[in-house]
Amino acid sequence: MRENVYNTPGTGRRGGRPLRLVSLLLIAAVLVLAGCSNNPDSIFSRDSGATTTSDVARVPWDYRVVEGTVGDLIGSDMTILPNNEMLPNDGNYATGDKVYTLQYMDAEITTDADQKNQVRLSSWSTIKSYKDLNSATADLKNLKVSVTTDVDLIGVYKTKYKDKTRNFAVVELPSGNRIKQPIDDKRYTAMAKKKTVPVVLEEVHDFADYDLAYAKFRGWAD
User: Fold this and answer.
1) What is the DSSP letter of 131?
2) Blockwise average pLDDT, block size 10, the chain, 222 residues
């Protein structure tokens, strides 16, 4: 048996470019561009072959900093051990030097006509090297930004199986994607008549085009 209580929905940063402070009023406009870049420098793109019943986009999903060792030097490039990935030797490193590298993971998100998403994650790829951990961490903090904002609450509902009842809330993120999150009885009651709810989002920005970002749900803000 299922009870429904639905509401009506109301950086590349080249050369040390500083982090932009994005106004909360502009978050929706910025994040809705996620994965839609036509910028040839962007490491993410939209699939132009999307059908009329589904939409496919590549969006920035995650970044991490990994310690490595410089391997062979090949012209102006170098290999990074242990995975032997090739990078430009911009720091004039020597074989055996310890370096920190920034790696990214993107996601291919397929959204159908019912706004349901299927996510396929890529493997990790290396895009930049650093001589020290502090520099790498500074870039990482700029690429993954925590933001508190209000989002549309599509509705809350209950499911019941035998003697167990579970509650869920469906919210729409600024990017247009809808997600379902489990909630307890107290939050279910509090949300039942609301049209918007405060949430914590993590903006994951495109390394080569900082204005492009994808928002991931990271929890309730209240």
Assistant:
1) S
2) 40 38 36 43 42 72 96 96 93 96 94 80 94 96 95 95 93 86 95 95 93 92 88
Distance of CA 204 to the CA centre of its chain: 4
Give the span between the Cα atoms of 181 and 183, in whole angstroms. Answer: 6
Structure tokens at 93: 């490193």
SS3 39: coil
Show contacts of 72-79: CB within 8 Å, 24+ apart.
none
> Would you call 186 helix, strand, or coil by DSSP?
helix
CA proximity to 35, closest of 101, 117, 139, 147: 117
> Cα-atom radius of gyration of the chain, to the nearest Å?
21
Strand partners, 55: 111
